[in-house]
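Annex B. Sample input.
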Amino acid sequence: MRDDHTVSDDSHAHDAGGHELSELKIGPVVWFLFALGVGTVITFLLMIGLFDAFQNRATEAEGKAAPLAGERQKLPPEPRLQLAPTNIDQVEGRQSPNLKEDHPLQEIKRIRREEDAKLNSYGWVDEKAGIVRIPIEEAKKQLLKNGLATRK
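Annex B, continued. Sample output.
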């Protein structure tokens, strides 16, 4: 008796070769790899040019001094942090801060004395421009006498 579910040996005869019968077209793969390689080389060259431009810009920027660099003070501008250097010797490391005189309570008392001295004395604010400082009480009296300047 014959089994209807068996397949004849003739139907599998063409599969016995062990490889796929449809061919892979190698031309498009080669062109893709070639284009990929050319694109990589172009990108590499562009990146070299970009990094050279960045390096040149950084070199030019380092060569130029900032306009105000010559006017820079060694001490930081007021108000300074507590226990920050208060004179050039402390900045250059030849003298350490005086913890008794530079204690925050002593420092605020010293600052207040300096401010009171400025408020109660005459002095130049800008000698070249002719701007002077007068005592605060004198300024109040002149303000009451002359009034505020107004626009017309």
